[in-house]
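Q: What does the assembled structure look like for these inputs?
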Amino acid sequence: MVKTPTFDSVSQDLVRVEQKMRQALETSNKYLTDILFYILDSGGKRIRPALALLATKFGTVNPAEKAIALAAAIEMLHTATLVHDDLIDNSLLRRGKTTINAHWNSGATVLAGDLMFAQAAALAAETQHVRVISLFANTLGIICRGELAQLFAPPWNEQNRTHYYDRIYSKTASLLETAAQSGAILASLPEDQIASLREYGRNLGMAFQLIDDVLDFVGDEHVLGKPVGSDLRQGTVTLPAMYFVQQNPDDELMLRVLNRQEQDPDAIAEVVTRIAQSEAIQTTVDEAREFIRQGKAALHNLPDHPSKDALLSIADFVVEREL
Amino acid sequence: MVKTPTFDSVSQDLVRVEQKMRQALETSNKYLTDILFYILDSGGKRIRPALALLATKFGTVNPAEKAIALAAAIEMLHTATLVHDDLIDNSLLRRGKTTINAHWNSGATVLAGDLMFAQAAALAAETQHVRVISLFANTLGIICRGELAQLFAPPWNEQNRTHYYDRIYSKTASLLETAAQSGAILASLPEDQIASLREYGRNLGMAFQLIDDVLDFVGDEHVLGKPVGSDLRQGTVTLPAMYFVQQNPDDELMLRVLNRQEQDPDAIAEVVTRIAQSEAIQTTVDEAREFIRQGKAALHNLPDHPSKDALLSIADFVVEREL
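A:
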């Protein structure tokens, strides 16, 4: 198991990002504020704000507070989408903690997510940088369109890998791309370096989601903080499942599960085990490694710098974690 | 009955605003696009974009397309909040048309609203004006905090008129204030004129919501497009109800309805009738007229201009409609 990156060079900044996010969610109602802070505390490894901050270190942001605001905006936007996602999927657990909709009715959950979107927009506006703000708004649009497309997706047997890649770009890679790119823009890097950091972020994001989709089959439930096989149970056909059905076109049980003719939990668990033990996992991991290779290669024209080393090690971590 | 203002001087612009909003909601899925357009078509009198456009006419916006983008951003934000409101209230009708959540599950409705928030932010960013964008983001925050405060409000008998005025400012007046103010900023008006248009917008918004709350008791259901008494049935205590209970402290039926001990539709209808026939209505209308008076007075330092005449007539319309 690879050590979790500690983001050493930006760890002080990340503390300020947490403070900034909390400030943005203060309300006059203590009960409400506590719940909003609980959602923030359910947060993950803060990889998105770390990316944004590391990208800024190749140049200068003046005043430095704007970089903190950008990083907080990125993570706030991410958190807002998770709040609404959990409501839409009716998920009761995320990262081992109960979700907000497990406590609240759907109205309060919708509004908590909306407030986070609003504060994300306000934090982005604090950068005072029109190009960064526009990029940020457009990314939110890409994420929403992707979620809607997934909800109105054609049946699984009319979906191909292009659909899948479009979906994970919208869902995950677009925000990592924007994190790295907007950090670069805010720090006034040359256009070729902005393009490189953007490409790094997109490739990292694609690999990140591929590995997430692999872990949904082979991960440790305690580390995942949710049961394995969640995607399949919710009818979401990810790349490992696509490869499995391609490699095992006559697996009747798999077809019944995909066609939702079979909803028995034991049967779904059996299909999850079959996929977990199949070649489909390695095929998917190999694709993730290829995205990582391309992401690292994109950094070739950035100068030697502690941030560059950090970005390279994050890339390795994303694809090696837990595998 | 007062004639609906036709916004003559900005009617061509308003056609472009509609086109701009539609463009922003185009998706690759025809079914989805049709539903999003249906939501737009359920829109009201477009008073918010008209305000923004009229405010810009006191100065110059270059290129003029930025004024269209601002007006579209304002109305898109308003529409997004309506979509989530209807979901939260579980309303099935708005302006006589079925709401999106009457057709779709809550997940799709959440995402449709989110996409509209995203596109509102993207349209605001098209102004390329940092002050306008910041104002816009902060207004969204005010609206969300207001909605959350309402959801976590104390019991009706611990609420006073300050709570009520805070609530209608957040819910309605803040966006009309921002519409007029941001139009003024974008057109580079002097600061005192920006402040005047802001004050006009806020007062107009307060009056607008007061009259809406009156119409919820005395309006024509066909004009309202929903049954009278909706607020009371949902447990929302508006100013006419506050005045009624103050003027009739011993009305047992009213108290039972407010304490939600009485849920019988006939009993609630009886209370609605009592309020509609009481002095509370006139007291509330008088307060609305006072806001309108202050809003019109705020325009004193703006030059004579067709936009000024239009703003004055909108103010009269808001308080005289249907009464």
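The CA atoms of residues 53 and 183 of chain B lie 6 Å apart.
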